[in-house]
């Protein structure tokens, strides 16, 4: 399967906006495909065998079709709230796959950075720009390079329970029910994203649907080109079908700062 190459010359670090369209499946088609694939016992056995011996616990989460968002920590950003709404509309139980043993880095990963320097949405200007205020909840000098499960907030609270507390407040949902730490499984299949990402995407051959946006910023698109696309292509070669990925945000919305930001009501709960 051929994928378009990234445009070398770009405006403000943006590559071609349609570079990664091949990764996505239209929502109705993805739902239909999921229903059909889950009926195929041979496909189930083939996929689950290749997921590895340590996949048992995570597969228990997929005893029914699931809508999945993959983030290091479940946190109530506008993006997460949208994911929960879309999952409900599609009548899929949502699941946020987490990765507590991943390392915190602020450079070139805006979703990780936002966990420690939280953008609080204020308003959208007449020019269409989203205005945010930031609440820095961790010391970057101390936290950078640590595993997320080791990071401590400035108020003394561990970073993961901190965001789970906000998740419960912002969504009304219990993070223990709607999230799952996949660290043990990831570590069992590889030490870096290049090794575990193929297994992650294999979950979406027949067990669930991934909701994601592969942002066309030069800094982030490098990961998609080097890690995601090869894993995606290999799975197509192995199983004859592609992983089911739905665009979480429309292509004219995915660059907005709004989606990484938190609702204003969250601010008053940060330091309590």
Report on this model:
By secondary structure, this protein is an alpha/beta fold. The protein has one domain. 39% of the residues lie in helices and 14% in strands. Helix 4 links the parallel strand 1 and strand 2. Helix 10 packs across helix 11.
The strand line-up of the biggest sheet is 5-2-1-6-7
First-to-last CA distance: 51 Å
Count of separate DSSP helical elements: 11
Q: What is the N-to-C succession of helices and strands?
A: HHHEHEHEEHHHEHHEHE
Helix/strand class = alpha/beta
Averaging pLDDT over every residue, what do you get?
90
Short description, anyone?
With 272 residues, this protein is an alpha/beta fold. The chain contains eleven helices and seven strands.
Topology (elements, then pairings):
Blueprint: H1 27-37, H2 41-51, H3 56-60, E1 66-70, H4 78-89, E2 93-98, H5 110-116, E3 117-124, E4 130-136, H6 140-143, H7 159-171, H8 175-178, E5 179-181, H9 183-189, H10 193-202, E6 208-212, H11 218-239, E7 245-247
Parallel strand pairs: 1-2, 1-6, 2-5, 6-7
Antiparallel strand pairs: 3-4
């Amino acid at each position: 399967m051929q994928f378009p190459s990234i445009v070398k010359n770009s405006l403000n670090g943006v590559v071609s906006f349609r570079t990664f369209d091949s990764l996505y499946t239209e929502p109705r088609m993805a739902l239909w495909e999921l229903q059909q694939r889950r009926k195929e016992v041979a496909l189930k056995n083939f996929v689950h065998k290749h997921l590895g011996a340590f996949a048992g616990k995570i597969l228990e989460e997929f005893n029914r079709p699931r809508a999945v968002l993959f983030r290091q920590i479940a946190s109530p950003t506008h993006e997460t709230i949208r994911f929960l709404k879309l999952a409900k509309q599609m009548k899929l139980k949502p699941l946020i796959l987490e990765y507590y043993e991943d390392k915190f880095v602020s450079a070139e990963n805006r979703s990780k950075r936002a966990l420690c320097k939280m953008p609080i949405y204020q308003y959208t200007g007449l020019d269409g720009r989203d205005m945010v205020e930031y609440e820095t909840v961790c010391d970057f000098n101390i936290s950078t390079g640590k595993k997320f499960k080791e990071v401590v907030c400035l108020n003394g609270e561990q970073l993961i329970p901190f965001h789970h507390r906000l998740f419960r407040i912002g969504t009304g949902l219990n993070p223990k029910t709607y999230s799952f730490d996949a660290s043990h499984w990831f570590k069992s299949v590889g030490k870096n994203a290049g090794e575990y990402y193929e297994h992650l995407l294999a979950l979406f051959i027949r067990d669930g649907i991934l909701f994601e946006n592969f942002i066309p910023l030069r800094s982030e698109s490098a990961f998609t080109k080097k890690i995601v696309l090869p894993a995606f292509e290999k799975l197509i070669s192995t199983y004859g079908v592609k992983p089911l990925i739905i665009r979480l945000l429309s292509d004219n919305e995915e660059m907005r700062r709004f989606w990484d930001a938190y609702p204003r009501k969250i601010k008053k709960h940060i330091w309590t």
